[in-house]
Write a structure and sequence with these properties.
globular, two-stranded antiparallel sheet, about 45% helix, alpha+beta
């Protein structure tokens, strides 16, 4: 079949797009293909499984490696970029809007620094599982189209089988993209990049309105993460999108026992990106975007700073509104629930209660059977008192069922699927995907996928970035 890939990013900012070719893959082997997504993009799944398979590893056409900068764990790097990734171009989705087709693990680029440019099967399957679960949960995210085994060996702590992930996004424009453009001192480049972002995401907006919309999108996004217990793990400015989509599922994880200090990332030694810190970090990242955009806000720097501060100052209110509205929905009630939420979260933390399980089981409590929820607590008097206060608000159990997932990509299940997949057994992966891509409502035979990890697993679990 013929495919029509545009090159709008490369045309708009050629200074930030280095044309490059992926490493040739002689015998690609398809591990998993997202057929519904392929059809939405106008791609024939049968073609992708056959003659089109080279497209999914970058061997049908060259792509471009995108330049960007970024603050990584607070330290600024002026030149990062796609070290092991290529943007093949843009496809038109069924909704009429463009989507990037992007590869990870396709080989070294000029931005690779000391990296090998490769990816192992495990981390690419992780991104496939988690991104598709996030999509099913209604959380804006990059999507995974396919994971293809390359037959290459990737050297990490041990030799691993290599793979390429093909992913799809509204765009791959990041806060770090604007930091890079600003750092060049070329105001025309910065303006063209902003114009491209506006045309792609918010047609007709001013530069200030672009920033305001990114602030709003990120405030809502982080609230949605936290409402399902998601921890991104590496919220660097190069991993924050302008579109408001979740990007980069490296050291990510889903929180088990509720604790705002929870960190799973092996490289987050000081807890910078802990569960409860995510709103603070998002606001910090947005301040870096504001700094990059200042020359476009006003010619007078003081005026530009004032404009940026006013827009950024709305973040906390927007986050709190999205967070509290989401918690009202999870509890099936309306009105002021701040104290009720505060007391419940304190009880959950003190009793090491599983986040996903508790909110799901509250649905049964709203129907009159409190025992499944009570059984998660040691402090029965505490939870009984809380349940009595909550029931007075007449919670809507049906509404709760629609927002409280039964199945999320629990960390031990993800690791189980990845280990099996690396050994050629994709059965656990497919069964996990079946559960987490239809996360609401209990289904017979899937009890295993709603069960928290053993305590000794969670106590020592760490995730890794894959590079």
């Amino acid at each position: 079949m013929e495919i029509s890939l545009s090159s709008e990013f490369a045309a708009a900012v050629p200074e930030m797009a280095v044309e490059w070719e992926a490493i040739p893959v002689e015998r690609p082997e398809l591990l998993v293909l997202n057929e519904p997504l392929a059809k939405e993009l106008g791609l024939d799944p049968a073609w992708l499984r056959g003659d089109g398979l080279p497209l999914l590893v970058g061997n049908l056409r060259p792509g471009v490696a995108q330049a960007y900068a970024g603050h990584q764990f607070g330290g600024y790097s002026p030149r990062l970029g796609d070290g092991r990734a290529l943007l093949l171009g843009e496809l038109t989705h069924a909704d009429g809007r463009l989507r990037d087709l992007h590869l990870k693990g396709s080989g070294r680029t000029p931005f690779a620094r000391g990296g090998d440019g490769l990816a192992a099967i495990g981390p690419m399957l992780r991104e496939y599982i988690v991104s598709e679960a996030m999509h099913a949960l209604g959380i804006p995210t990059t999507r995974s189209l396919a994971v293809v085994s390359t037959g290459a060996t990737v050297q990490r702590d041990e030799p691993l089988a290599g793979a390429v992930l093909a992913r799809v996004a509204a765009s791959h424009l990041r806060v770090g993209s604007f930091q890079y453009a600003r750092n060049t001192g070329d105001q025309d480049l910065l303006r063209r990049l902003a114009d491209h972002a506006i045309a792609r995401h918010h047609p007709g907006s001013t530069y200030v309105e672009l920033f305001e919309q990114v602030v709003a999108a990120q405030a809502t996004l982080v609230a949605r993460w936290m409402l399902v217990g998601f921890i991104h793990g590496v919220m660097n400015t190069d991993n924050m999108t302008i579109s408001g989509e979740t990007i980069d599922y490296g050291p990510c994880a889903f929180m088990e026992a509720y604790d705002p200090t929870t960190v799973y990332s092996s490289i987050d030694h000081r807890g910078r990106y802990a569960f409860g810190n995510q709103p603070i970090i998002a606001e910090w990242n947005l301040a870096r975007l504001a700094e990059a955009l200042l020359p476009l806000f006003a010619d007078d720097e003081d005026k530009a700073v004032a404009i940026a501060m006013e827009a950024l100052g709305t973040f906390q209110e927007q986050f709190e509104r999205a967070w509290m509205t989401g918690l009202q929905a999870k509890l099936g009630v309306s009105g002021d629930v701040k104290l009720l939420v505060k007391d419940l979260l304190a009880l959950m933390q003190e009793n090491h209660v599983d986040f996903t399980s508790l909110f799901h089981r509250l649905g049964a409590a709203a129907r009159g059977d409190a025992e499944p929820a009570r059984s998660l607590f040691l402090d029965l008097a505490g939870i009984d008192g809380w349940l009595a206060r909550w029931r007075e608000l007449e919670p809507d159990a049906g509404a709760m069922d629609r927002v409280n997932p039964v199945y999320v990509p629990r960390n031990h299940l993800v690791e189980e699927a990845l280990a099996a997949g690396a050994d050629g057994d994709l059965g656990p992966l497919q069964r996990l995907l079946d559960a987490v891509t239809a996360p609401y409502g209990e289904r017979p035979g899937l009890e295993y996928y709603a069960t928290p990890a053993p305590q000794d697993f969670s106590a020592t679990y760490r995730t890794f970035c894959g590079t």
